[in-house]
Amino acid sequence: MASIHVLKPSPPAGDATPDIPAKPRSSLFGHVARSLVRSRLVQFVAIGGLIFALAPRPASRRDIAIDAGTLAALEQAQAQRLGKPALDADEAREVRTRAVEDEILYREALRLGLDRDDNVVRQRLIQKVLFFAEDLAGASRAPSEDELRAFFQSTHTPWTRPAEVHLIHVYAGPAGRDRLEALRDEVVAAEARSPGAPPALGEAFPLPRDLTTTRDDLGASYGAEFADDVFALDPGVWSEPIRSRHGWHLVKVLGRTDEAPARYEDVKGRLPLAYLVARKKQAAASFLRQAATRYRITIDGQPLSAWTPPRSEELD
User: What is the 3-state secondary structure (H, E, C) of 158-185?
Assistant: First the structure.
């Protein structure tokens, strides 16, 4: 193999400067590399580049990706609406098409700025963040017996046992007033022979003739005016004919209990809903208190010195 010789030019005559040996290429590279390593700017750029290279790329706004799990949930929901165990091929294709259409329309709405300055969107977002706060606090969790009892004790004052009447009655139809007036003495005599038992007189009636009830429940079944008339009666005396939404009645109040503080057993069935409402209000209030610390609030340019969430209702 032929050798290649590189001839260096000779220095000019009279130049006594000696030749300076060139640094080896590897040594020069190492010096530059060490300088670069010591540079904080270069270190920062290198680390930033590494993070950028390893980090997942954000999805492009032009990308629409719908996963199989989402499609399966949409198809199942549609099948339930249609009352069938599963969709056929055409129905499943329609669900997928609708999912893509909805996502395109949603993206276009955002692109066009239709979500801005829209009270409907604003209220929906407010509602959604309140749902988020409730879910975060576990407000929808079913309460235990101990929690319900504690809630009852902490809110005992509003819980009352409503006034009730125990009554018996004799019924005649919508045109039966005169008939009841003629039957009154017979009704009084029959009940005197069997005290407290509704006499088997008048017309057949589908509802009980002997009942213990509150004013609200009586009004719901017979009408508010009838309930008011019954609660105004003196106990132990047969009334004159009283009109309800069903017709005419002779009524005798056998006993009455006044409104009183409720016992836990009296309101146990109403407590879970009241407890759920109170917990949701508490969750919203707690979330608002924490969120408010991130904002400077002014009213007509003046800083708001004190603010309490109006949705607050604490549970002891």
Answer: CCEECCEEEEEEEEECCCCHHHHHHHHH
Looking at beta carbons, which pairs linking 198-201 to residues 24 or more positions away fall under 8 Å? 198/168, 198/169, 198/170, 199/170, 201/170
pLDDT in tens, 163-202: 999 999 999 999 999 999 999 999 999 999 999 999 999 9
User: Which structural domain, as residue segments, surrounds residue 246?
Assistant: 163-258
Sign of CA dihedral 36, 38, 39, 42: positive
pLDDT (0 to 100) of residue 45:
45
Does residue 220 share a domain with residue 142? no
Count of domains observed in the chain = 3
HSE-up of 237 (CA within 13 Å, CB side)?
9
For residues 139 and 280, the answer to whether their CB atoms sit within 8 Å is yes
